[in-house]
UniProtKB/TrEMBL annotation:
It is a multi-pass membrane protein. It comes from the Eukaryota. One of its GO terms (cellular component) is endoplasmic reticulum. InterPro entries: Rer1. This is RER1A-like.
């Protein structure tokens, strides 16, 4: 009689274990790709080219591509903008200079790191336009 907190054999726990194992593999691949900046950008460029060719060949998915473009533009703006706007901070706090030797002067800290700027569009393209089409057909 299994009354205590032993391992359960129900299907939901098996699915949970499987999804957790897949998430750990995915996170491990992301961790390994962190120092490979050039290869990550090349991979993003190749995936973007394949996506553009697929949209051109199919002659469709323009609305999905438009939404994806707006999202990537928003990511680009966050990538190029500073985390703290210096003009607003200077008005509120006044200009700040390092007061101790341990204070590091950081002239530009991005609001969105380069790694996330590269990974987020890739995660959207992994679903592809067919995912939205299948969801629309099932509704």
């Amino acid at each position: 009689m299994d009354v205590g907190g032993g391992a359960s054999d129900n299907p939901t726990s098996a699915v949970t274990r499987y999804t957790h194992a897949m998430w750990r593999r995915y996170q491990h691949l992301l961790d390994k790709s962190t120092p490979l900046v050039m290869y990550r950008w090349i991979f993003l460029s190749v995936i973007t080219l394949i996506y553009a060719l697929r949209v051109y060949m199919v002659q469709g998915y323009y609305i999905i591509t438009y939404g994806l473009g707006i999202y990537i533009l928003q990511l680009l703006i966050a990538f190029l903008s500073p985390n703290v706007d210096p003009e607003i901070q200077d008005i509120r706090d006044g200009p700040n200079l390092p007061t101790r030797g341990s204070d590091e002067f950081r002239p530009f800290v991005r609001r969105l790191p380069e790694f996330k700027f590269c990974i987020l569009p890739l995660s959207l393209r992994a679903y592809g336009p067919e995912h939205g089409e299948k969801a629309a057909l099932c509704a």
